[in-house]
Specification:
Radius of gyration: 21 Å
Shape: globular
Largest sheet: none
Strand content: under 5%
Distance between the termini: 16 Å
Number of strands: 0
Order of helices and strands: HHHHHHHHHHHHHHH
């Protein structure tokens, strides 16, 4: 049976229409509070994309959202709703801090793979417990991953206040990482090629790692046997079991990959930007990853584009709050509308488009 509309329409057109509707409603809200929506859009575009400084922050936020979006997307493929990206990224930061503070690293090229491995292992370990409870005990992964977010926050708070805080320091944070762990920024990477990029922007080499993660996730999900089994299990658990696919193995594998990806976010914000582990370093990126995965249709390329959009919203929203009377919470409203249209109201956009494509197909016939 032929699909009601082509694949490109499902992957591109529906999210695009949903995005337009979300921005249209946002414009009405801005009008309602007495501001000019056109001027607001110009300010956001200028602040997020009008300079290398703005691009640096946009790409920095987008890097965080790529990792957490991929984490949610991998779990989605197995029909698992991993809401624990926030806690897994927190524990990933702990892994990065332990690696960076354990040795006097001579160069970032040696520290980076070790820290990335530590972040991935800690994130995967934090996802493994809810995964095991879901696979063997039937405890719903949504509930357990939410609970583990709070547990991770409590564990990190205890460690930073009582164990890892330097003597005499007041902030609940670790000591600064040694200079050998400091990652090159995009300014450092592009300067040899003659590109002048802002030194003050926090975007760093982790952005390239995030792009590599998108490619790797695509290869795993669409070019390996494990990926086929994950997607088959997500489409139909009874059919997958009939085909010999073991549910416990698939749930554990999908959640371990998901947790590792969420943990890898810490390389960007802990090692690349703060250069130490602080409380609240994740700043909600684990939850934004859910919206990124929804809008990106759980596909790595879609996640990449959606992460760029949310990076733009974050940086543009900061500039909007700084230079206008529009409150910073307005960006939360826009994000909520994007999530609403791409998630809960997906059928409101999908059904009219399906009817349109069916009518076009009958007309051609």
């Amino acid at each position: 049976m032929r699909e009601a509309m082509p694949k490109w329409a499902d992957l591109v057109l529906i999210p695009l229409v949903s995005l337009v509707l979300a921005f249209a409603l946002s414009a009405l809200v801005i009008l309602a509070i007495g501001e000019d929506p056109v001027a607001a859009v110009r300010m956001m575009v200028s602040g997020a994309l009008g300079s290398t400084y703005g691009w640096g922050y946009t790409l920095y936020y987008a890097t965080n959202f790529i990792f957490t979006g991929l984490a949610v997307a991998v779990a989605f493929q197995a029909r698992l709703f991993n809401i624990g990206g926030e806690g897994q990224a927190m524990l990933g930061g702990l892994g990065v801090a332990l690696i960076c503070l354990s040795l006097p690293w001579p160069h970032w090229a040696l520290a980076l793979p070790a820290a990335a491995l530590g972040a991935a292992l800690f994130g995967a370990a934090w996802a493994a417990i809810p995964a095991w409870l879901q696979a063997t005990r039937g405890s719903h992964v949504v509930i357990t991953t939410i609970m583990f977010n709070f547990i991770a926050a409590a564990v990190l708070n205890y460690l930073l206040v009582n164990v890892m805080r330097p003597i005499g320091a007041m902030d609940p944070a670790t000591a600064k990482f040694p200079p050998g762990t400091h990652l090159p920024s995009l300014h450092d990477l592009l300067a040899p090629f003659g590109f002048a990029f802002s030194r003050a922007a926090p975007a760093n080499i982790t952005f390239l790692i995030a792009i590599a993660a998108c490619v790797l996730v695509w290869l795993i999900l669409w070019r390996t046997r494990l990926g086929y089994e994950i997607r088959a299990y997500g489409h139909s658990e009874p059919a997958a079991i009939y085909a010999g696919i073991k549910p416990v193995r698939i749930v554990m594998a999908a959640m371990l990959i998901s947790g590792a990806l969420a943990g890898l976010m810490a390389v960007n914000n802990v090692m690349g930007e703060a250069e130490r582990l602080v409380l609240n370093a994740v700043e909600g990126a684990g939850f934004i990853g859910i919206a990124v995965a929804l809008m990106g249709r759980s596909h790595p390329f879609g996640v990449f584009l959606a992460a760029l959009l949310f990076g733009f919203l974050y940086q543009g929203g900061a500039e909007l709050a700084l230079w206008t009377d529009i409150p910073r919470e307005m960006i939360v409203v826009i994000q909520a509308l994007v999530i609403l249209f791409t998630g809960a109201l997906d059928n409101m956009v999908r059904m009219p488009l399906e009817r349109l494509f069916l009518a076009l197909r009958r007309g051609r016939a």
